[in-house]
Amino acid sequence: MGYSIGQTAKMMNVTTHTLRYYEKEGLLPFVRKNASGLRVFSDNDLGWLAMIECLKETGMPLKGIKQYIDWYIEGDATLQQRLDMFKAQKQKVEEQIALYRKHLDKINYKINMYTEAVKRGSWDKMMEEKLLAEEKKKRFGK
Amino acid sequence: MGYSIGQTAKMMNVTTHTLRYYEKEGLLPFVRKNASGLRVFSDNDLGWLAMIECLKETGMPLKGIKQYIDWYIEGDATLQQRLDMFKAQKQKVEEQIALYRKHLDKINYKINMYTEAVKRGSWDKMMEEKLLAEEKKKRFGK
DNA sequence: ACATAATATAGAGTTAGCTTTAAGTCCGAT
DNA sequence: ATCGGACTTAAAGCTAACTCTATATTATGT
């Protein structure tokens, strides 16, 4: 019913250094310490870490995550802010996915061109110019 | 048939500083300068910038982008490397999208919980524990 | 012609998010 | 009881990708 910093680090795929750093930055305000000063992580703490991971990997800076945690500590008066934050994050992620898709199209186009080029053993300038014209249209066409 | 650094910056949504920085880092080896030393960007350069943007925004570090450019300059002998690079990038983007989706699910769950909580005006610990149990199952269940 | 806006170079400074180092203390096993 | 490994704090160091400063030169509008 409690994990050492090392066990926690392994489970959450981070280093012990990172966990201490997060704590110092105020991202883990609920972690206890035992009689000899060692950190004891609870399942609840792992839950917080999972959420930190989620927000971090979707592009929220640690400061933003800390803000959420501070709101959480403040209590029910900040429920609306927290909801708004998650809604904003949702939108950000959806936009990000859309952007990735757009870039994926370009990458696929390049893969087609290079697959051709590798087959022929040479890079065809014509293809590049065609792509360039396409790009240009996109930039000015809107 | 040529753009100043300022025009280019505006078109590509970057600063002039960034463009000079990219050039210094070897990411824009084809940009010319006129008689008095001012940079003149061609449509081809804008094409390169669009590709830099694509690779950068899909998570490739500038060093990786420079590697591609160096391969390009080397010529047809590196066609296979360049194809492989785009294939690897494609996979990375697809994985990233999958991860974002997973995180989006978590965020949506939170939004539901907080929407409820805001309606009732208080945060229900029960809900949190339910979510926690879910998390725990995911971590150990695989 | 002249003010001012844009550009040039070189180099220092900034920010986020770790990562490493130094100098220890604590604990489990032989 | 002692050794290796995990842990402690505090602080310096690192990397990426800009961002800004200072000083000088060039281009543009009236």
Please provide a written account of the structure.
The structure is a homodimer of 142-residue chains. Chain A has helices at 5-12, 16-24, 43-57, 62-74, 79-120, 125-140, and strands at residues 32-33, 39-40. Chain A has 142 residues and is mainly alpha-helical. Chain A has two domains: 1-74, Orthogonal Bundle (Multidrug-efflux Transporter Regulator, Chain: A, Domain 2), CATH 1.10.1660; 91-142. In chain A, strands 1-2 form a two-stranded antiparallel sheet. Chain A is elongated. The mean pLDDT of chain A is 91. At the A-B interface, α3, α5 and α6 of A face α3, α5 and α6 of B. Chain A binds a DNA duplex (30 and 30 nucleotides) through α2.
Please specify the SSE layout and strand pairing.
Two copies of one chain form a homodimer.
Chain A: H1 5-12, H2 16-24, E1 32-33, E2 39-40, H3 43-57, H4 62-74, H5 79-120, H6 125-140
Antiparallel strand pairs in A: 1-2
Chain A binds a DNA duplex (30 and 30 nucleotides) through residues 4-6, 15-18, 20-21, 25, 36-39, 56, 61-63.
Please name the defining characteristics of this protein.
142 residues; DNA-binding; 6 helices; mainly alpha; homodimer; Multidrug-efflux Transporter Regulator, Chain: A, Domain 2
CATH architecture designation of the largest domain in chain A: Orthogonal Bundle
Number of distinct beta strands of chain A: 2
Radius of gyration of chain A: 24 Å
CATH class of the largest domain in chain A: Mainly Alpha
Q: What would you call the shape of chain A?
A: elongated
The averaged pLDDT of chain A comes out at 91
Structural class determined from secondary elements of chain A: mainly alpha
> Low-confidence spans of chain A: pLDDT under 50, at least 5 residues?
none
Largest interface: A-B, 47 and 47 residues
- How many structural domains does the protein architecture of chain A include? 2
Question: How many separate helices of chain A?
Answer: 6
User: What percentage of residues of chain A falls in helices of 4 or more residues?
Assistant: over 70%
